[in-house]
Amino acid sequence: MRTGNDAGGRAAPAAEPERWWRQGGFPFFIASRALSITGDMAAVSALTVHIFQGTASGLAVSGLFVVRVLPRLFGALAGGISDRTDLRRLLIACDLVAGLVFALVAWSQPGYQLILALVLVAESAATVAAPAGQALVARTVPPYALGRANGTVMAVTAIGFASGAAIGSLSASTWGYQYALLVNALSFALSAGLVAVIPRVPPVAREDGDDRGFVATTLAGLGRLRRDRRVTGVAVAMIGVTFAGSLDRPALVMLTQRDLDASSLAYGLALGGISIGALLATLLMGRSRLFPASVGVLLAGLSVQAAGHLTMGLAPVVTVVVAGAVVAGFGNGMEGISGTTLLQRAAGNSVGLLMGVVMSGSYLADAVGSLLGGLLVGAAGARWTFVVSAVLMIACALSATRITGDEHAGPSGGEGGGPPT
């Protein structure tokens, strides 16, 4: 694939700042991810409604989310596959597998246990596709444009989650859950077609001629990444803030509906505020050179998130809760874009492996944090849970600062020194 990076990994010439967008196939990749994310969320929300209506059991619904999370705990292996495989073929295969699974569920309308088994297959394909997509961005977008590219991916993801959930819920309640699954299957087929337009993205040849097996090279890659202070600090910060933020998930409902005596609309507005804040961050970081992807911006994002969560916890009225949610979402966008970009730059030939590790750690942190958050809400209340969450976010920023040391400057060829956008 001809991109802003030449065969030696050098940045694109400054005189051609936009050629990466037109020639690198990035618009086709973004369109494919938008389709697959929207369809996937439509299917998940429709299946959630279907399972609850059929079983009247919250535990049964939890089973659906458990099988969705389980494969993502093996992100290191999924990322290792990305580093050793043509990314275009891998993404097409993942899309086709997921599409066939959801088409089969829609056609056969199986029982609960078989639904879980088939969803597990589809989510395993999605687990492989996630680090593969991030690796594709890292290997096809020049360094000066990585922050903007990652911001675009984040924006598309947020919009796809919101629109897909709405489509799935509407479909399940109006026409039947199977129609949302058919929409999802079609979205994956279209996504595969869009990815097929992108030229091949073969694995990068290893300079040391390492011909060891898959498991051995994966373990060796983990060892190299663990010894990189910057990588370790950024990964710890991203996984840690995921844990801290997940504590608030059960607290937000209690805060809005019991402590502030508001309606369920207030809860929805707060969630929407987080998404709006994240979208604002993607726009600002994509267009302003004042916020290049760097360790400093990552730490600032963690601090802004902490301020937003603290504001939500201390809010006297719902309006302040929503404002705090926008601030928290903005900080989340700063942290997510900067962290992802820094990891992509530092990982070298192991970008898929590293992103898979962070994905696994984040999902595990989210699951544990959500569970502990429920216990903390019951013991201390919603407001104190938000305070604890904010304190932990500041602790993540301090830990990242200590681990990375004084290395806050971005690498050469970073966004701050790139051509204007």
Automatic annotation (TrEMBL):
Alphabetical UniProt keywords: Cell membrane, Membrane, Transmembrane, Transmembrane helix
Transmembrane segments: 51-70, 90-108, 114-137, 149-170, 176-198, 231-252, 264-283, 314-334, 346-365, 371-398
Gene3D superfamilies: MFS general substrate transporter like domains
Gene Ontology MF terms: transmembrane transporter activity
Compartmental location: Cell membrane
Positions of the Major facilitator superfamily (MFS) profile domain: 180-421
PROSITE patterns: MFS (PS50850)
Membrane-topology annotation of the record: Multi-pass membrane protein
Record's GO cellular component terms: plasma membrane
Pfam families membership: MFS_1
UniProt KW Cell membrane keyword: yes
Primary residence: membrane
PANTHER family (UniProt xref): INTEGRAL MEMBRANE EFFLUX PROTEIN-RELATED, MAJOR FACILITATOR SUPERFAMILY ASSOCIATED DOMAIN-CONTAINING PROTEIN
Stated name of the protein: Major facilitator superfamily (MFS) profile domain-containing protein
Species for this entry: Streptosporangium carneum
